[in-house]
Design a protein that fits this description.
Helices cover 61% and strands 0% of the residues. It has 132 residues and is an all-alpha fold. It has one domain. It is globular and about 45 Å long. It starts with 13 loop residues before the first helix and ends in a 14-residue tail after the last helix. The mean pLDDT is 79.
């Protein structure tokens, strides 16, 4: 059985939910960038910190009841940035591992696909797990 927090059952304004997610993602990027600069971590390890950390956005978005269209829009924007950065180095940290890889693009596509397929199912207790 899934228990909810009674004080959080009310609808959170979308701007507040997006602000919380934005702060989390901004902090994650700053943390990864700081680890890279301060401790001279390998670019591959920094990418893993970002990939693992961004995966938790699904749980945060589910808890804050962010609509599926926001997740789909964010996935499309992230995929577009990753794809453009593959050809034009607008964000060199995305492709700074010394090899050409579309992994960041497909990561954004997979996150968007999961949100599109499982978010609207209506079974809130199973959505972050990827079940119907």
């Amino acid at each position: 059985m899934v228990y909810s927090l009674s004080w959080f059952d009310s609808v959170v304004p979308l701007w507040l939910s997006l602000g919380v997610v934005g702060l989390y993602l901004g902090g994650l990027v700053l943390c990864a960038e700081g680890l890279n600069r301060r401790f001279a971590w390998d670019a591959e390890l920094t990418r893993k910190v970002v990939h693992i950390g961004t995966g938790h956005v699904i749980l945060l978005a589910w808890w804050l009841q962010i609509p599926a269209w926001v997740g789909l829009g964010a996935a499309v924007v992230a995929a577009a940035i990753a794809l453009v950065s593959y050809f034009v180095p607008i964000l060199p940290s995305i492709n700074s591992v010394g090899r050409k890889s579309l992994g960041t693009f497909f990561y954004a596509v997979s996150m968007g696909s999961l949100v599109g397929w499982f978010w609207p199912s209506g079974r809130r207790n199973m959505q972050p797990l990827g079940f119907w």
